[in-house]
Amino acid sequence: MKRWAYELHDNYGRKNDGLIDVGLNTEKIIEIRTDGYNSIVPVVNVLTLDFYNKLAEWALIVNDKEGSTFNKWAQQLKKSINEKLWNEEIGWYDNLYPDGSKAATWTYHLFDLLASPNVDGHKRLRLMSHIKDGVFLGDYGFYSIARNDTLHWDRIDCDWGGGGQYAGMPMRIARNLYKIGNAPLAWDVLKRYAKYTDYFPYMSQNPSTDKPSQDISAMPLQISAGAGVEAVLFGIFGMEPNIDGMLKITPNYHTDLGNAVMKGYKFRGHVYDIEINEKYFTVFCDKKPIAKKQIGETITLNLKK
Asked: Which listed site, 70, 115, 146, 211, has its alpha carbon 20 to 30 Å from 10?
């Protein structure tokens, strides 16, 4: 993990401000057929900032002196992102190019930043404000490029260029929305994509957003299915396992769910099940009920031992 941080900083980080520059046509970032998604891309930079901070956190735990280096890089990068990439007028992060010019690419990649600890509440609300019908939301989930981005919209490149979506993204975005407390919007996203269960026996790689169809090159992907599982486990059923052994459970209920059950969650040598309805949720450990509370409350289990 440390080697990857040095790879980012030393080979792609700008000397003057620490911003990560992936260059032009280097194949270091997902492709978009239309022009402009290159050089200093906001999602790459904010996620790199998260990565530096996480490394500094881990280094502190294991008494690794390099943690101070990662912390220094993170501070510089955060300052540069806020000063040079955030566009307050439109509530979005801009791409930055070698000649100093800026432009917005309205890609759903930026919603990977919703749960970032380095995006403050104001910026998070501005980003979320674009998740609406006719912009990023369609009948079956997300448009990979916003409908009103006439420069980058591209129906040929379904999962990254406009008319469709990479199946992992709506689930990952839903999980992010649950994590930051916007359960109604998270459920709206999941409910739209869940319509695909009536048409396909698996999560297709790049389905359409307007109609129940898939690109001819589509295939089932475990990563996409995993993103869906995370949205259900950590979003709807509110599982929050921590490295210190604590397990918090705060389900997010919606009336569409009726009575819902999650079975077989394994954590620290035990198996947990959760049942939820419109009023209560019950937690089972190794098939025995151990706690029951009202929806909206939290059950905390101390599993350090």
From this structure: 115
Q: What is the pLDDT of residue 305?
A: 56
**Which residues make Cβ contacts (< 8 Å) with residue 165, sequence separation at least 6?**
108, 141, 142, 143, 144, 158, 159, 206, 207, 209
CB neighbourhood size of 197 (10 A): 10
Q: What is the fold of 2-242?
A: Glycosyltransferase (1.50.10)
For 47, counting Cβ atoms within 10 Å of its Cβ (0-12 exposed, 13-18 middle, 19+ buried), the class is middle
Cα–Cα distance measured from residue 270 to residue 108, given in angstroms and rounded to the nearest whole number = 37
Phi-psi region of 24 (alpha: psi -120 to 50; beta: other; left: phi over 0): beta
Identity at 4, one-letter amino acid code: W
3-class DSSP state of 165: coil
Extract the tokens encoding 93.
Answer: 């992060």
Helix, strand, or coil here: 9? helix
Domain ranges of the chain: 2-242, 243-305
pLDDT of 32 above 70: no
Q: Highest mean pLDDT: which of 78-82, 226-230, 264-268?
A: 78-82
Consecutive H or E run containing 266: strand 260-267
Please determine, for residue 222, whether its predicted confidence score (pLDDT) is greater than 90: no
Structure tokens given for 122: 């104001």
Q: Do the Cβ atoms of 29 and 22 come closer than 8 Å?
A: yes
Confidence of residue 215 (pLDDT cuts 50, 70, 90): confident
Angle, helix 2-12 to helix 42-61, in steps of 10 degrees: 140
Cα separations in angstroms, 122 against 25, 103, 242:
33, 21, 27
Token pair in block for residue 48: 């790199």
Widest pairwise Cα distance in the chain = 64
Asked whether the beta carbons of 244 and 238 are under 8 A apart, the reply is: no
